[in-house]
Design brief:
CATH superfamily: Ribonuclease Z/Hydroxyacylglutathione hydrolase-like
CATH class: Alpha Beta
Strand content: 15-25%
Structural class: alpha/beta
Largest sheet: 7 strands, mixed
Strand order of the largest sheet: 6-5-4-3-2-1-14
Length: 306
């Protein structure tokens, strides 16, 4: 009897989890536009936060995926997103907490998608390879770390047909002006280089249905062009990684995040990539400079963009 009760309990629990996942996906379908945080954490272990990843829902479809850090592959599935719906995979930079989930996403992806997947990332330097070189080192059918996924780069050998093909483009992260990286079907995506130590990094702005979303990514906040890039956005996502009153060579302090959002006159600020910080003090510092609507990010959190 106890065994039967245990089995019924497990079945009921699984049923509840399936229902919760469906409800979460339905609530972030995009009416017509929503942004969902798949990973709100960074490089430090946090059982509640996957690493950095954002998903834009447009007209009830998951259309733009920005970054895919560790754990975000699971969140993509939990959100109810479909790889076949993606119009663009955009990568801000090649730190592991922003890109480590890519092989997992693409593994056997040719079974769920037939069309090539457009993807864009930053140029490289002496420390970090450019995006195309990075992908070659991962997926080249002869010398890549994942040779069996050579079809990601167009390898026609039978044994390597385990990934949808990627349509790769690279943006010069040192370019002073924004670059248009996607302009189709009523959606325009632009990219701008932002300072993040010695790692070439891009911020992205997505415009569609008369609204705009800006993903600031990891940055120091010291490039004045970024304020112009983000100005008037309905939603701005910035990273809150270091404590109030501190300085860091690659991340913006909370007061800088607040100043950027206030000066850019955004409709709503979402803070994500939450580090191991005194969050109360950081938010208090941010609010000294930013007076608009504020959301503290969490995994699978959804914001309708208006």
């Amino acid at each position: 009897m106890k065994r039967h009760t245990h089995i019924f309990f497990v079945i009921a629990l699984l049923f509840m989890q399936l229902n919760n996942t469906s409800a979460s996906a339905q609530s972030c379908a995009g009416q017509p536009v929503a942004v969902q945080i798949l990973g709100s954490g960074g490089p430090t272990l946090n059982r509640l936060r996957a690493s950095s990843s954002y998903l834009l829902w447009i007209d009830n479809r998951a259309r733009v995926l920005i970054d895919l850090g560790g754990g975000a592959y699971l969140r993509f599935a939990e959100a109810g997103a479909k790889l076949s719906d993606l119009s663009l995979l955009a990568v801000t930079h090649l730190d592991p907490d922003h890109i480590a989930g890519l092989p997992a996403l693409l593994w056997l992806s040719n079974r769920s998608r037939t069309e090539p997947l457009p993807t864009v990332g930053p140029s490289g330097n002496d420390i970090v390879p450019g995006y195309s070189t990075f992908l070659y080192r991962l997926f080249d059918g002869k010398n890549g770390a994942f040779q069996i996924m050579g079809s990601a780069l167009g390898d026609a050998q039978t044994y390597s047909q385990q990934s949808v093909r990627l349509d790769v483009s690279v943006v010069d992260a040192a370019k002073a002006e924004p670059s248009t990286v996607y302009n189709r079907a009523g959606m325009t995506v632009t990219a701008l280089g932002v300072p993040h130590g010695e790692v070439p990094t891009l911020a992205y702005r997505v415009q569609t249905h008369g609204v705009s979303i800006v993903i600031g990514s990891d940055q120091t906040g010291t490039n004045p062009a970024f304020v112009r890039f983000a100005r008037g956005a309905n939603v701005l996502i910035m990273h809150l990684t270091i404590d109030a009153g501190t300085k860091h060579p690659v991340h913006a302090a909370p007061d800088v995040v607040g100043q950027i959002a206030q000066e850019a006159q955004v409709g709503r600020l979402i803070v994500s990539h939450i580090g191991p910080i005194d969050r109360h003090a950081a938010i208090s510092e941010l609010k000294r400079f930013y007076s608009g609507p504020l959301t503290i990010g969490a995994d699978l959190q959804c914001t309708q963009v208006r």
